[in-house]
Design brief:
The structure holds 2 protein chains of 2 kinds.
Chain A (H helix, E strand, L loop, with lengths): L1 E2 L8 E6 L2 E6 L5 E5 L7 E2 L2 E4 L2 E2 L5 E10 L4 E11 L2 E11 L4 E11 L8 E4 L1 H8 L3 E2 L3 E3 L4 E3 L1 E2 L8 E4 L6 E6 L9 H9 L9 E3 L6 E11 L3 H13 L20 E6 L6 E2 L4 E2 L1 H8 L7 E5 L14 H4 L6 H12 L3 E5 L11 H15 L3 E3 L8 H9 L4 E3 L7 H6 L3 E4 L13 E2 H5 L5 E4 L6 H12 L3 E4 L2 E2 L2 E2 L4 H16 L1 H4 L15 E7 L5 E8 L5 E8 L3 E8 L6 E5 L2 E8 L3 E9 L2
Parallel strand pairs in A: 16-29, 21-24, 21-31, 24-25, 25-26, 26-27, 28-30, 30-31
Antiparallel strand pairs in A: 1-8, 2-3, 3-4, 4-5, 6-7, 6-12, 8-9, 9-10, 10-11, 11-20, 12-19, 13-17, 14-15, 17-18, 18-20, 22-23, 32-33, 34-35, 35-40, 36-39, 37-40, 38-39
Helix pairs in contact in A: 7-8, 11-12
Chain B lengths: L7 E4 L2 E5 L17 E5 L2 E4 L5 H11 L28 H10 L7 H9 L47 E3 L4 E2 L4 E6 L22 E5 L3 H4 L4 E2 L3 E3 L2
The chains are: A alpha+beta, B alpha+beta.
Chain lengths: 603, 230
């Protein structure tokens, strides 16, 4: 390790790590002057308040600047100290480069309190506030719509996508991620991720608990790209996925779940599912009606809720009370299997009794699988797969589990290999928006079925558009526990079209190279792209979220075109234009419409 | 009066305002919950829910056998539990008994009037909940005579707690068939996703979605009869 020496009287430190170029002024506090293409920043990296008193800049003393350059690892760190009203602070700012185009920024702080009595410490990060104010700054999931930044991305997992700053031309980009966020309030990184997504980030003051030893306060990854925002997403995706064990997704025995595009929710207590005169379930009728949607890939049978709790009967006993006991289910499963439809039953985790364990439920499930040949277990409100159920998969390798909520944390994502993407809340005037689900792109191997149980009318239309925009399947749920909310004939037709497209272009839709919210040439257009790195074919899902028709160039394409075709949505009159070796996609797109376009590139 | 015969109470014809508070977790209960004025005709009503003894006598006398006997009298009534309300009976089983006894099941509106009376009481005994006056969260059924102090204004016992009671009719919203249950029961499941158990207020009913008879019978579900009086 060598000591870094100040080169001039102004005490400036300029250095490059990977593709990151920084200029710091360390004369009084530590000021960030420049960061790649972002010039004239001139903001403190941090400021500290102790019991609401700001430590003055002239109190900071730079102790050492350290650097190490190695083939695989480079870092530079700046140690500083300050003595403030008998409390002695020490801190370190480090930049670490190990992976290409990714730099870790680490901010650490310690304190020796006067008489060992801790005080309230608040931190501010003026340089981040400045970046947040930059006109080219995009919060996670945001896009520009010409006038302002608007949110068009969603995710519901504990990995937060990076914020991004682009150069004016859009090619140079920096991504900022506060990574490894445990869902717990004392994790400062989680707080930063949440705060930077909010409008009032500039007011953020982070309270920290300091010790005598350096405590990690901020761990920020800076992603660098010279080829646009897509590269930032790809870097984040690659870096995030690296620590996940996703082997379970590649088990050939479970491959069927990836083609579970349409799941029918079969609510037992209604005309749709039950013949009150014949006292039997209308499974053949359900399968027949399913063809209007393009054919169900699976059926989820549902009869325990809202019936559990009338007496002490358990969720498993309620199957015995169906006509002819388990035989009803066995017969329905058999009919489904002859139509190549998989069959799920649900679990009710909230019904576990004090004398029951998950192991005992696993035993019931095992018995049930043997007696009825069901294919899957729907975990209802659970978002993780307990060990007891994992053992079932070892005995029945093709057996699948699916949860109501998308898994949020690493272990859950690794073990629970399919779920719903459930949105909506009837109590809050929920409006279905067409936006990008980042989980879908981060883990394309995890099948999601979109559902918004209470949505009707135009919201059902929007739901279909949202499914198409994210290239995902749906749950066909029309009987919501006794409220009949059917799809219209037109909506069924659209779903049928979507299912056929998902099936036909499966490899692209669920490929490893899909990217959400790529830049477009129109301020009211958002676009996702789906592709597999082994193929030259890409699917573009394009949404005109404005209130006017858009006619003209909407996308700049990466290379020369071999073939192109609109495969979903109202006729967008798509064309390809070549100008000075650049290729553009042109469309005539109605307001509030989603189209899918397949393009085969030469390379 | 023989022990298997029911004690009946006379209810004089009256008009009252029916109002049920029933917000389901999910799945609308699509009937008019009021407030609306309803006319109650002169009635006789069973003082107690129909007991195991009464129902056993009915079986003995009529040889009644349900078309679908799944879970029918699954608790196996015997002399030791003769004073407990009969349960594991479907609405059809209850109607069969009521017809034999010369009566019928009370309508949802009648049931509420029998429980709440012209003073619109919240609970059979008054406006304040008192769990010691009913079998609420009691873990098992008790004798129909165990909670005499919790009688309603007209003297009917067990209008709250002990066992749910069938009311008359199958409601059809065009896509679903359901019946309305009254009074709540001794059983009080632990989670909010379960049916809200325990004793229930006079102005509450629960929507039981109808399926096959095995599903329509339960360990907490009994009935009482009313008889049209001139």
């Amino acid at each position: 390790m060598m000591q870094y020496k100040f080169k001039d009287k102004k005490k400036c430190i300029d250095f490059s790590l990977g593709n990151l170029n920084l200029s710091l002024d360390v004369d009084k506090n530590i000021f960030l002057k420049e960061l790649n293409f972002i010039k004239n920043i001139n903001n403190e990296l941090f400021s500290i308040k102790v019991e609401n008193k700001l430590i003055p800049k002239n109190k900071y003393k730079i102790e050492t600047v350290s650097k190490n350059t190695n083939v695989n690892f480079t870092f530079i760190s700046i140690d500083f100290s300050q003595n403030f009203e008998n409390d002695f602070f020490k801190g370190r700012i480090s930049f670490v480069h190990k992976k290409k185009n990714i730099i870790d920024f680490i901010f650490q702080l310690s304190v020796r309190w006067h008489k060992d009595i801790p005080k309230k410490v608040l931190l501010k990060f003026p340089f981040l506030i400045n970046l947040h104010k930059n006109k080219n700054f995009l919060k996670p999931g945001d896009i520009f719509d010409g006038k302002k930044r608007i949110n068009k991305g969603v995710w519901n997992l504990h990995e937060y996508p990076p914020s991004i700053i682009s150069s004016n031309l859009g090619n140079q980009c920096l991504g900022f991620e506060f990574y490894d966020q445990f869902p717990w309030q004392a994790n400062y990184n989680l707080g930063m991720s949440e705060a930077i997504s909010n409008e009032n980030f500039e007011k953020l003051q982070t309270e920290v608990q300091l010790t005598r030893d350096l405590t990690d306060i901020i761990l920020m990854k800076i992603y660098t790209s010279s080829s646009g925002r897509e590269k930032i997403f790809s870097l984040w995706k690659e870096n995030t996925r690296e620590r996940y064990d996703l082997r379970k997704y590649h088990d050939v025995k479970n491959r069927w779940i990836k083609k579970n595009y349409l799941q029918h929710f079969m609510f037992a207590y209604g005309e749709e599912a039950f013949d009150y005169k014949k006292i039997e379930f209308k499974i053949n009728q359900i399968i027949k009606e399913g063809k209007e949607f393009g054919g169900y890939d699976s059926i989820l049978f549902w009869h325990q809720y809202p019936r559990l709790g009338l007496d002490e009967s358990t969720q498993w006993q309620l199957y015995k009370y169906l006509p002819k006991n388990y035989k009803t289910i066995k017969k329905i499963v058999h009919i489904c299997h002859t139509h190549n439809i998989k069959f799920f039953i649900p679990f009710k985790p909230w019904d576990i009794r004090s004398n029951e364990s998950l192991d005992s439920h696993a035993k019931f499930l095992e018995k049930f699988i043997k007696e009825t040949s069901i294919d899957g277990f729907f975990l209802d409100t659970m978002s993780s797969l307990p060990e007891s159920f994992l053992k079932i998969q070892k005995k029945f390798p093709s057996f699948e589990f699916c949860s109501e909520g998308t898994p949020k944390e690493q272990r859950q994502i690794e073990s629970l290999t399919s779920s719903w993407d459930q949105i909506g809340d009837i109590r809050r005037n929920f409006r279905v928006d067409v936006n990008s689900n980042f989980f879908r792109f981060l883990f394309p191997e995890h099948p999601l079925n979109l559902v918004s149980r209470w949505s009707v009318g135009s919201d059902k239309d929007a739901l279909i558009k949202r499914a198409a925009f994210n290239g995902m399947g749906m749950v066909i749920w029309q009987d919501i526990f006794g409220s009949w909310l059917p799809f219209s004939a037109q909506q069924k037709k659209k779903i049928k079209s979507l299912k056929n497209i998902l099936s036909k272009y499966h490899k692209s839709f669920f490929g490893d190279n899909s990217i959400p919210l790529i830049p477009t040439l129109s301020k009211k257009i958002i676009c996702n792209t789906f592709s597999d790195s082994s193929s030259t074919q890409k699917i573009y899902s394009i949404y005109n979220f404005g209130s006017n028709r858009i006619n003209g160039r909407i996308l700049k394409l990466p290379s020369a075109i071999n073939k192109f075709k609109q495969i979903f949505g109202k006729n967008g009159d798509i064309k390809i234009e070549k100008k000075r070796n650049n290729f553009y996609l042109l469309a005539n797109l109605e307001a509030n419409e989603v189209i899918l376009v397949s393009i085969k590139f030469n390379i | 009066m023989k022990s298997f015969e029911s004690k009946k109470i006379f209810i004089e014809s009256n008009e009252y305002t029916y109002r049920v508070e029933h917000l389901t977790l999910e799945g609308t209960c699509s009937i008019d919950h009021g407030p609306r004025n309803v006319k109650i005709k002169n009635l006789l009503v069973d003082k107690y829910p129909v007991t195991n003894q009464q129902y056993s006598f009915f079986l003995k006398k009529t040889g009644y056998k349900p078309r679908d006997s799944q879970r029918f009298l699954d608790h196996k009534p015997n002399k030791k539990i003769f004073n407990l309300p009969v349960v594991f009976v479907s609405q059809n089983d209850a109607i069969a008994y009521a017809k034999w006894a010369g009566g019928r099941l009370p309508t949802d509106e009648e049931w509420q009037y029998i429980a709440a009376g012209p003073k619109y009481l919240d609970w059979p005994w008054g406006d304040k909940f008192n769990p010691s006056l009913c079998n609420h969260d009691g873990h098992k059924l008790v004798s129909v005579k165990a909670n005499i102090k919790g009688s309603s204004w007209c003297g009917c016992v067990d209008m709250a707690g002990n066992c749910w009671e069938w009311t008359a009719g199958i409601h059809d919203d065009g896509n679903h068939q359901f019946a309305l249950l009254r009074g709540g029961s001794y059983f009080y499941a632990h989670d909010h996703w379960h049916i809200g158990g325990g004793a229930r207020k006079n102005n509450y009913h629960w929507k039981l979605q109808i399926l096959n008879e095995g599903m329509n019978r339960a360990a907490t579900l009994g009935f009482r009869c009313v008889y049209d009086a001139i």
